[in-house]
Amino acid sequence: MSKEKGYVSFVLHAHLPFVHHPESEDYLEEQWLYEAMSETYIPLLTNFKKLEEEGVDFRITMSLTPPLLNMLDNKMLQERYIKYLNTHIELAKKEVERNKYDERLNNLAKYYVEKYSSDLHIFKDIYNCNLIEGFKHFQDIGVLEIITCGATHGYFPILYVNEQTVKAQIAVGVQTYEKYFGKKPSGIWLPECGYVPEADKYLKEFGIKYIITETHGILYANPAPVYGTYAPIVSPNGVIAFGRDLESSRQVWSSINGYPGDFNYREFYRDIGYDVDYDYIKPYIAANGARVHTGIKYYRITGKDCEKDLYNLQWAKDSAEKQAGHFFDCREKQIDSLAPKMQNPPIILCPYDAELYGHWWYEGPYWLYVLFKKIYYDKCDFKLITPSEYIEKYPLMQVSTPCRSSWGANGYSEVWLNQTNDYVHRHLHVAGDRMVELANKFSNEKDKLKVRALNQCARELLLAQSSDWLFIITNGTMVDYAKKRIKDHIGRFTKLYYEILENKIDEDLLKDIEEKDCIFQEIDYMIYK
């Protein structure tokens, strides 16, 4: 038997909606990807690499969602990211000059020149413009477990009105994973952690062993789990569920006392895009002249109602090291108190949005690096583990059905179904029904043009179903863009639907849509049959 008293499992959910606009470079939303690459994905890969080189054995699990994989693999977006980096290097160099009489600002500007130059080198020379290879390497050497997600992060608890649409989300999620990683995924991050028992049979059909759910999805499971979220449960259909641990989540997530609020950390909201002279910054902001984030930020959080102080890299590192120690001690205590009461060693599951690490919490990737080293070198009673490894070690678990739930505000579906966005669902449901109708009606279609149109219909439906658009409308951030995307995809779907039925396919239009929405090249519309 293993000598560990318990285990800690980090699960990072790396996801962005598919944003691809060959028709224009003026879409700000495209920068979501570039920011995540520079602030989250490259820093995570860099810290994994350091751990590997230092001989530190660690474990982490990440979902890389199908839209994200498709974007990371897209030539046009790779080229635009290089352009983005070159622009940032140019701006940072101007900043070095602009701040030459202020030593602290000048040093920070130099830091950004180095940072973006290093990103460019890592992206082009080390990963040959494809970060997927970077993540695959760590999966291949056994320290990272990559799991999948719904095809476009469609929200199961509402989509399952038409079960074929949930089946397709799962099928295409698994297919995309196989394309990039050459094997089947063991786990799935349910989009928005949205669980419904109706999805189990499809998860099972496509070989998914386990899911990640929200805390109350486990706590309110039926029958009540004896060990709460500290042990996985298995549904009557044979799908294993791991629930989020509340205590460790709060330490990182909480806006009041979570680590990212430390006063020494970099202030996310204070950016030179808003601070410096307009004519000077104009070439580096939005095409329409709106001030936006540039990624160059000079201030630390400092405190609530005080003048912001300049960011100090060393102080930020000191805070990260101290907090890694605190997190480590808390898990020790937690596991010490749980272990004697449990049949199997407890597992503390720590799921987070990957973008929290680096993008929102700039020092997050370094914090993980320090924590993983600490767990490896310090004497402690617990180890890092992936959900798959835990299942292999402790296959016996309680049979119980998780409760319908999500990790959205208030724990159920109101983020994706409320007065601001409820109008969308009837369009999604009608399109879902129509897609199933097309798949049944043209089940052995031989006409190549018609098959292309049918496959594009499947892509448009999946893209319209992305939970991100509903979330954005609820949060009131980039509402016009989100509404435009839903309208575009439903509009393209509907136009193609009628053209297919009337046997009047406009090939030029189809080609234009295929170029814009070029996701899931291998899709087969028959998944909706």
Describe, in plain words, how this protein is organized in 3D:
This protein is of the alpha/beta class and 529 residues long. The chain contains 20 helices and 10 strands. It has helices at residues 31-53, 66-72, 75-98, 103-126, 131-140, 156-159, 163-181, 200-205, 215-219, 246-253, 272-275, 278-281, 313-338, 364-377, 387-393, 423-441, 448-464, 467-475, 479-501, 507-516; strands at residues 6-14, 60-64, 144-149, 187-189, 210-213, 233-234, 240-243, 347-353, 382-384, 398-399. Strands 1, 2, 3, 4, 5, 6, 7, 8, 9 and 10 form a 10-stranded mixed β-sheet that branches. Helix 1 links the parallel strand 1 (6-14) and strand 2 (60-64). Helix 13 (313-338) packs across helix 14, helix 16 (423-441) runs parallel beside helix 19 and helix 18 (467-475) packs antiparallel against helix 19. It is globular. The N and C termini lie far apart (48 Å).
**Overall residue-averaged pLDDT value:** 95
SSE pattern: EHEHHHHEHHEHEHEEHHHHEHEHEHHHHH
Any idea what the CATH architecture of the largest domain is?
Answer: Alpha-Beta Barrel
The name of the CATH superfamily of the largest domain reads: Glycoside hydrolase 38, N terminal domain
- Which term fits the overall shape? globular
Number of strands: 10
Domain module tally: 2
Rounded to the nearest angstrom, the distance between the terminal CA atoms is 48 Å
Strand content: 5-15%
CATH class of the largest domain: Alpha Beta
Largest sheet: 10 strands, mixed
Compute the CA-based radius of gyration: 24 Å
Structural class, judged by helices and strands? alpha/beta
Oligomerization? single chain
In the CATH hierarchy, the third-tier topology of the largest domain is known as: 7-stranded beta/alpha barrel
- Extract low-pLDDT stretches: none
* Percent in helix: 40-55%
Query: Helix count?
Result: 20
